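note to self: dont lose this again. the chain is below, predicted strucutre after it. 570 aa total, dont forget to put it in the shared folder this time
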Amino acid sequence: MLGKLCLGICFMLLISACKVTQHPELIVYNAVVYTGDTLYAGDAVAVRDGKITDIGTWADLQSSLGSDTKAIDAGGHFLMPGFIEGHGHYSGLGYSLINLNFLTSGSWEEIVEKVKVRTKSVPQGDWIVGRGWHQEKWDSIPVLNVQHYPYHYRLSEVSPHHPVVLYHASGHALFANQKAMELAGISLETPDPAGGRIVRDVNGKAIGVFEERAMKMVQDAYNSYLKTLDQRRLDSVWQEAIFLAESECLSKGITSFQDAGSTFDELRRYEKLANSGKLKVRLYVMAREKADELVGQVGKYRRIDVGNRFYTCRSIKSEVDGALGAFGAWLLQPYSDKPGFYGQNTTDIYDVKKIADAAIREDMQFCVHAIGDRANRVVLDVYEGLMDQYGEKDDLRWRIEHAQHLDTADIPRFARRKIIASMQGIHCTSDAPFVVSRLGQTRSRLGAYAWRSLLDNGVIIANGTDAPVEDVDPLKSFFASVTRRREDSGLVFFAEQKMTREEALRSYTAGNAFAAFEESWKGTLTPGKVADMVLLSNDLRTCSDDDILKTKVLLTITDGKIRYDRNRPK
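---
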């Protein structure tokens, strides 16, 4: 009996000794900690095995230090859950850092000059690609223009031997030079496709702009060129794009990224990267292919928490309209600056319903791009029809991506059906200079980026940037969310619809985690959740509005590992 007692005591001592040796691998202390979880408070966060183990005071947690614990003095700065990009395009962000980028270009002349310079370093016959122009955001209107779109002549003049394709900032229009249009077979007789428009002059000639579904004509020519290239070269460029996107995100405090639509091929590549432990930003990816391919194959690509929770695909992306800036948003009433025109329905609603059925069948979330008020109403109708049919499925968390312009009668429908409004704060202030021109004063005031109205109805908002449509920087989008003020001109877009600081923080952390079914293990600083954190120079809850934009990302941590250190940049 005594022997058994001694054995038991030894066993307990061994367990106790093991517990003692489980020191934190990392402690961040002397921080102003925003947990996003009201149950926990303190100035220090302890981490082990990629998870938060404790939150408390530095005085209390010091006793848990081990010889191998890395202790980081936060210097009194603001520690919060890592930003989650709620809607962006990951490889698109990477490619925007390789190709020509016009997000900050102030004129058509500046864009033409950038293309001219690029022709000097690109072999003749190779395509030149760029993105980010927006005709409504230039400092001046081109002399020759159609609805502020310039004619192609000057661009074609500086690039006679290179096909050029330059994507609109929204991704819903493109500009092609003469060489690209020749390769695409564009002529006076080329008809507008359903859901798209070739912008023409008074004589019917294409000026170079292709909206929505009309873009496919030029894209097909570009894709034919890509097929002539060595696959290893293309794979290398893709890998470079992913590395650049990852570095860009980490430097801006983003620890997770919800990718709004990738092909099956990209899904396979992301999964491979996750399984090999090469991802440092967590990816939640929406599958996007043609309707028939999605319906028949998407279930094969459903994955959850691959590679230590760095890759998930459990959602499907579709769209029903385009973008407001390119006259593609589908409206209930005509455009104020284009009488008689209601925008574009870009995907047959029958196809949208087929994809929705597949989402239900494969237990996948459905995420549909809808910008105009008619587009949003149609998507709500589709969602409600399916939800009525499958009433037993009450936690679908289906999303409307963008939900930018709403009829006030449709706002309560989001709440009743628990539909997530996946909106991008920065779009509001970025688009502000032309929204009233497109929609008129009343529609703009009541239904444009109606965050306050949605929140007051109990709707969950997932925030983001739609990168590379906008800069992926969450601080700029946060600033727009809480001020609705442009940082350059000071223009304020209907401030009564702005978010509070707390609401905006939640929309970029816990709200986005919920929108991806991941709230149980990330989105707040809570013991047991993953140690995805960002240290900022300013407290976003209390600093002045102007200081939000002056805030610096000091540290970005994912899985308990420091991925970005401002003091030790790569």
